Amino acid sequence: MKPVRTRYAPSPTGFQHVGNIRAALYPWLIARQTNGVFILRIEDTDQAREVEGAVESMRETLNWLGMDWDEGPDMPGEFGPYIQSERKANYAIWAQRMADEGTAYADVRTPQQLQALRDTAKAQKKPFLAREYRPENPPKWEPGMPLRFKSTPQAYHWHDAIMGDLSAGEEAVDDFILMKADGLPTYNFAHIIDDNDMQISHVIRGIEYIASMPKYLNLYEALHFEKPIFAHAPHIMNDQGNKKLSKRDGAKSLLSYRDEGILPEAMLNFLASMGWNDGTEQEIFSREELIAKFSLERVQRSGARFDEQRLHWMNGSWIRGLDINSIYTLCQGYWPDTAKHYDEMYKKAVLGLVQERLKFLAELPELTALFFEDLPTDLNLIDANKQLKKFSHAELKVYLEHAMGSLEQSDFSVEDLTTRLNALLESTGQKPGVLFSLIRIASTQAPFSPALADTLHVLGKERSIARITNCLESL
Fold first, then answer.
1. I want to staple 412 with a disulfide (CB 3.0 to 4.6 A). Which of 248, 267, 441, 461 is the partner?
2. In three state form, how does the secondary structure of the chain look?
3. Which are the contacts of 364, defined by CB distance < 8 A and separation ≥ 6?
4. Distance CA 409, CA 413 (A)
5. What is the rounded radius of gyration, in angstroms, for the C-alpha atoms of the chain?
6. What is the pLDDT of residues 230-279, one digit of tens each?
């Protein structure tokens, strides 16, 4: 078998979203699994749609995910350049060869003339096939003229590493433009030339290209190129699963997920498992496990639904697996402004409490603000609580005074606080949903918090008692 050489060949037409990067991930995994070569190639022949900064964003996204490449625009190899607009001379050579061999012809018909032919086919109620309307005496092709492939119609049967055995009749084969009037190649021509020149062993891309496979196979044969292994991944669907995910459906830039505090390990895990599994119940995979276990044969043939909640669940799982020093380092830049006056030891103690609930790092201010800022008592939190609203403020005040008397005697260790809180349940005869909710709201001014004893311990005795005192005065 020839060495494995895979590629990611995006167009610089915007930011990288989940669909783009999953298309990069599969070939990257195959290359890393086989000690092969992963190539980054920029396909910029459609320069009218190019977006400034898109290439830099692409590199930044891949670097964030740790998806390194072995050859590319900034990693020269023997098959460069790796930007299509810098390979114009090479496409011109192949175009001239095809024109000389008679496998391509100059097509100088105007768009209006071609549209008239399409209208004719439509009037005759048959599909428009350019090969049925070839010009009788085309001029000799020269650069600056459109060059159209002269196809040889035939049926095709081929194997796709994801979709299995496929076939198409000769009606799927047609003449198509290879070189445009501006001297640049079309995608349909350039990527086949580049894949051959760069000795690509696996062409892995989206399922939308399957319809063009008969035309591509026809061109491979006309060029006498060896065919690579083909694999077409199904679409990533929107969260309802009823259409392909698009920017309108929330296909955000991957860098925006980074900025929200999604970990790169979690994003890789999420992208790989969106449409693939190893045949087990395992859901959390390390980078090394993905490289070892991934296979194209286990990529599902139906579309994978994009589920952002699952991404958050997966990210939370990765966060929970971090030691406190690692997560503290990652959380720099996410703390609420009020945390700047507190030392590292205190903030690590706070992190230890919220780590279990943290799904992405941008949640940190919401989950930790109660530890850094004393808010005025809000009795609406009590009145809206489904357990506490059954009691009058006078009754609640009695319970809270009883709790205050015990807490004032505590050394505020977690162990002592736990003992005292459990003893309060017995002495008051109340359920945790009543008594603990009352103490929690009084001490945090939040409807939810981590375990009560742990929360009080981190807040400290002075602050906890002061807050409870304020709530008693309000009651």
1. 461
2. CCCCEEEECCCCCCCCCHHHHHHHHHHHHHHHHCCCEEEECECCCCHHHCCCCHHHHHHHHHHHHCCCCCEECCECCCCCCCEHHHCHHHHHHHHHHHHHHCCEEECCCCHHHHHHHHHHHHHCCCCCCHHHHCCCCCCCCCCCCCEEECCCCCCEEEEECCCEEEEECHHHCCCCEEECCCCCECHHHHHHHHHHHCCCCEEEEEHHHHHHHHHHHHHHHHHCCCCCEEEEECCEECCCCCCECCHHHCCCCHHHHHHHCCCHHHHHHHHHHCCECCCCCCCCCCHHHHHHHCCHHHECCCCEECCHHHHHHHHHHHHHCCCHHHHHHHCCCCCCHHHHHCCHHHHHHHHHHHCCCCCCHHHHHHHHHHHCCCCCCCHHHHHCCCCHHHCCHHHHHHHHHHHHHHHCCCCCCHHHHHHHHHHHHHHHCCCHHHHHHHHHHHHHCCCCCCCHHHHHHHHCHHHHHHHHHHHHHHC
3. 261, 331, 334, 335, 336, 354, 358
4. 11
5. 32
6. 999 999 988 887 788 877 766 789 999 999 999 999 999 999 999 999 99
Cα distance between residue 231 and residue 300, in whole Å: 12
Cα(369)–Cα(356) distance, integer angstroms: 16
Q: What's the pLDDT score for residue 338? A: 95
Mean pLDDT of the chain: 94
Ramachandran sector of residue 276 (left: φ over 0; alpha: ψ -120 to 50; beta: rest): beta
User: What are the residue boundaries of the structural domains of the chain, listed by start?
Assistant: 87-233, 323-369, 374-474
Q: What angle do CA 451, 454, 455 make, to 5 degrees?
A: 80
Q: What's at 323, amino acid-wise?
A: D
- Exactly one of 243, 247, 252, 390 is catalytic; name it: 247
Q: 275-279, long-range: CB within 8 Å, 24+ apart, which pairs?
A: 275/22, 275/233, 275/234, 275/236, 275/299, 275/300, 275/303, 275/304, 276/300
C-alpha–C-alpha distance, residues 348 and 353, integer Å: 9
Least Cα distance to 145 among 94, 175, 184 occurs for: 184
Domain 87-233 classification at class level: alpha beta
Nearest to 353 by CA among 317, 320, 315: 320
Bridge partner list, 167: 157
CATH 1.10.10.350 given to domain 374-474? yes
Is 140 one of the catalytic residues?
Answer: no
Residue 92 has pLDDT above 90, yes or no: yes
- For the chain, the distance separating the N- and C-terminal CA atoms, rounded to the nearest angstrom, is 79
